[in-house]
Amino acid sequence: MFKKKQKEPICPLLKSECIKHECMFYTHIQGINPQTNTQMDHWDCTFKLLPLIMIDQSRTLGSMAASNESLRNKIVEEFSAFGFLVNRITKKENNFIQIAKYEDEKDK
What is the pLDDT of residue 84? Predict the structure, then answer.
């Protein structure tokens, strides 16, 4: 019956109606909405999009932290195996050096 008159968005910087494409903060965004997982492809104010961008960034950082942790665990595992091998080699070298010293002293 009565149609609501749609208001133009108010710009937080200009304190007046949004000037849309004339504003340098009016941005085209494409991708997947992190809240609904639907495809996005539209123009909007950067200030309005900040919460969505922050949500997406926090999800990305969380997955990066998980992958860094798994990489760290792999490196620690490989390094401990390498350390074990180095330890075994140095013990054998020490044994050979001690045997050689013993044989030298025995010959004297």
Answer: 76
Residue 24: CB atoms within 10 A of its CB come to 7
Predicted pLDDT of residue 7: 78
Q: What is the pLDDT of residues 22-38, one digit of tens each?
A: 999 999 999 888 888 89
- Six-digit token pair at 13? 């910087």
Distance CA 88, CA 100 (A): 18
Rounded distance between C-alpha atoms, residue 95 and residue 88, angstroms:
11
Domain that holds residue 62: 20-107
Question: Is 12 within 8 Å of 48 (Cβ atoms)?
Answer: no
Confirm whether 1 is domain-assigned. no
